[in-house]
Structures are given as C-alpha cells and as structure tokens.
Design brief:
The protein is an all-alpha fold and about 220 residues long. It is about 65% helix and about 0% strand.
C-alpha cells in the first residue's frame, strides 16, 4: 500500500507519522507538494494534540458550549488558555507523584505556546498565496527551504517530546483519596511543590497499594 493509499486515522500520532513518511518520500528534494501536505498533517497533529490535552484537563467532561468552541482551532486555543494554569499545576503534581512512586513512568510536558505558534507558521505554508513571487515562486526557492526547516523543526519537537516520557496527566477523579487531598491543596496554592512531594512520600506505601504497583 502506497503512502497516499493508506487509510487515514485521526490521532495526533498518525498525523506525525504521516508527515515523517512524506519527508522520507521527499528524500531531501524539497518538493512543493510534499511541503504543503506535510504542513497540513502537522497542523492536524497540533490541533489533535491540543484537543486531546483539553479533554484530559477537563477529564473528558466538556459542556455543549465547549464542544462547539472546540470545533475550531481558535476555540481550542481559547479553551486551552483558560485551562492552561490547571494543566501546568496538574502536570507538575503528576511529575511529583511519579518522582515518589516506583513504577510510574516519566511524564513529558506539552509546550502549548510552541504548538500554537507553529500552527500559525504551518498555516502560512498551505494557505492560498496571493504573491507567488514571495512564496512558491520565490528566488532560489527560499520559501520552500524555510518551509522545510519549519516542518522538520516541528517533527523533531514532537519526536523529542515523546522520547522525553509519556505525554499525559493523572486525572483528579482517578486519584486515591490521600492523593486527591494533597492535589487539591497544591492546586489551590495552600502548599508548595516541596511540601506536596514530602506529603506524597509519606503516603507512598498506601498509594502504591492503591495503584497496585510493586516496589
């Protein structure tokens, strides 16, 4: 089955892999159509990543209004900005828990600001261009060279992000009671990271039993 014959999927991982396959097909030729197709796939990867993150932050409980807003990239962006503080605090807490709980894998952070910025850069590569001389007809193919640099940078960013650890968060609803109490105090600002980590360390034997992890 060829590159263009493969059935499409709707996960961020698939879009990233498709962009990588396009670059492999290109083999450094910097073909115009490959540039556009790869930019489209990476835009979709970013949109899907942000949407998946939003669902995790909201614990899969979006209101009807939030679902409507999430149908556009601008809507997802606005929702993410609203949830960004909660994401950062939850990510930090998840990492604290991973530090003190044997068996939990490292957690990678999602740089939402980078992804939103690169979404705009990728859009410039695949939208209709009103001045061909400065885009696909640019002297010495400067537009294409810069475009492929952007595409490769985004691909590398995703690859490095996933290599750094699992991308995810520990949902509040899935936490044992002891963990949830510490989490709520941490998110509310009643305790700092060091205090939270110390409390988690004290509770670790109970947490390990609750989460069916072995030492």
């Amino acid at each position: 089955m060829t590159l263009l014959e493969a059935p499409r999927e709707v996960t961020s991982h698939w879009h990233i892999q498709q962009a990588i396959r396009l670059l492999e097909f290109d083999s450094g030729r910097q073909l115009d159509t490959v540039l556009v197709y790869a930019a489209v796939e990476l835009r979709a990867a970013i949109e899907r990543t942000l949407l998946e993150l939003l669902y995790v932050v909201k614990e899969l409980k979006l209101t009807d209004g939030e679902v409507r807003r999430a149908r556009s990239r601008q809507g997802v962006d606005a929702l993410l900005q609203e949830a960004d503080t909660a994401y950062r605090k939850t990510l930090e807490f998840t990492r604290l828990l991973a530090d003190v709980t044997p068996g939990l894998p490292p957690i990678a952070a999602i740089d939402t600001a980078y992804l939103r910025r690169r979404w705009s850069d990728l859009s410039e590569l695949c939208h209709a261009q009103v001045e061909p001389a400065t885009t696909f007809g640019s002297p010495d193919r400067a537009f294409q060279r810069e475009g492929f640099k952007i595409v490769q940078h985004v691909v590398d960013h995703f690859v490095n992000m996933y290599r750094a650890g699992n991308v995810g968060l520990l949902a509040r609803s899935s936490m044992p009671d002891e963990t949830r109490t510490i989490y709520d105090k941490f998110v509310a600002g009643d305790i700092d990271a060091e205090q939270a980590k110390r409390m988690l360390s004290i509770a670790e034997p109970v947490l390990r039993q609750r989460m069916n992890l072995s030492s």
